[in-house]
Amino acid sequence: MSPDEAAQFHEFVQARWARLVRTAYLLTGDHGEAEDLAQNTLVRVYGAWHRVQSADSPDAYLRRMLVNANAARFRKKRITQLLGAEAPERGEADSADRIGQRDALMRALAQLPPKQRAAVVLRYWDDLPETEVAEILGCSVGTVKSQASKGLAKLRADPGLDGPQWHSSPHENSEELVHDRS
Amino acid sequence: MTGRDEGQWMRERFELGIGELPDIPVPHEAIVRRGRARRRTRNAVAGSVASVLVVAGLVAGFTLPGGGGKQTTATDPIPPSTPASTAPPQTTPAPPNPLGLGRVALASGPMDGHTWELTRVRTQGEYEEDTYVLPGEPTRAPKKQQGYCETFEIAVDGRTVGDTGRQCGDAPDWAGADRVPGQINFLTVEVDDKPDHTDLGFGTLGAVTWGFVSPDVDNVRVTFKDTGETKTLAPQSAAGVSERFYLLTVEHKTGYGRNADLVAYDAAGNIVAQELNRQVSAD
């Protein structure tokens, strides 16, 4: 890897790490697994840097690698425990509301099958269009629509995601976070 | 509630639930270190460490080019310590291309109704040594080298769906050059039935493990760590390839993340080279 490429790789990683870990957390429900998943994905990106750089959308390539690595993680470890069943261990500094919201969210997501969960996360957390989600998941747009719709319906029906704590949270934080994405 | 509203409802839950997670420092050094190590591992080439090829297709078996249709299958019930193939290694006339430059078909076979083919592409060329430095370290100018570059491609139904990446070094024959004594050759590549950017995809259906062996190797014995099953593989040869190689197929349906001991023996039963507890299936 030339110095120019190295600098580009460094910049690429720096700009995407925080977001990538959050997406990985939503997919895995575990901080440690999320960090491992994000790091493993970027290790693969390093090895395929020429291909990633020349891809039409390096970000789509990155997400595809992340989702696929997560699928492989499921296959490999035969994960059967309820993901997100334990409260996140890094929430000490958070408010009780935040911890409660996060815990409820992860418990609800853990009910979804992996592909349905990925469809919901990519569609509504990463804000990807259905066509891009379809390409990442290797399925049709129709499948994405149905998977996301079913997933969303299950989450809507989860009482943990509709409690009063969700309505009392200050909305300005949400706006700030959306801005923070870029 | 409209679909748009549903989406907004979900986005709000995501933002409130995890938007304020504390940032974790970027483990840049670890990523680069592991990325380099991964490249070196794949670099059967320079490191002379060998080759495992993971094929995303149901690998039912393989044939060597010019091999008269001889087939072997990893899942064939082969008794322990018995050569998987009793046929003698296939030999072909010496090619008029001693460096093996260009495209050489190594193996092919049926795969879940499709046909896969493994091809080596070797060229003479210039390459740069890896000069990656971490932030804050002084940069080094890339040093140009004259040598040989090589990649292995996998095609399904005539369409290339993945490759090992282009690896370069100073010798044309990676397998023979600079071999680490006692270490058996192998390389891993994942492939799908779709073009290469999806090669880590859900469609991984099987795996092919292969690597070059020295002339004194009589057979390679594979012992799966999970089941204890043993297979014994006879070295194969292919037109345009100066060295023999072993090749093992592992079907997806037998499981992911399977590890095995790979041990090469000479005719007297002495161990020539080995790799223990290496992954031989898709992960």
UniProtKB/TrEMBL annotation, chain A:
Gene3D superfamilies, per database record: 1.10.1740.10, Winged helix-like DNA-binding domain superfamily/Winged helix DNA-binding domain
SUPFAM superfamilies: Sigma2 domain of RNA polymerase sigma factors, Sigma3 and sigma4 domains of RNA polymerase sigma factors
Residue span, RNA polymerase sigma-70 region domain: 19-78
Sequence segments annotated as region (Disordered): 155-182
Source organism superkingdom: Bacteria
Compositional bias segments (type: Basic and acidic residues): 169-182
Residue ranges of every copy of the RNA polymerase sigma factor 70 region 4 type domain listed in the record: 103-155
Keywords: DNA-binding, Sigma factor, Transcription, Transcription regulation
Family annotation (CDD domains): Sigma70_r4
One protein family per Pfam: Sigma70_r4_2
Family: Belongs to the sigma-70 factor family. ECF subfamily.
NCBIfam families xref list: SigE-fam_strep, sigma70-ECF
PANTHER family hit by this protein: ECF RNA POLYMERASE SIGMA FACTOR SIGM, RNA POLYMERASE ECF-TYPE SIGMA FACTO
Name of this chain's protein: SigE family RNA polymerase sigma factor
Species the sequence originates in: Streptodolium elevatio
UniProtKB/TrEMBL annotation, chain B:
Keywords annotated in UniProt: Membrane, Transmembrane, Transmembrane helix
Membrane-spanning ranges: 43-64
Protein name: Uncharacterized protein
Region (Disordered) residue spans: 65-101
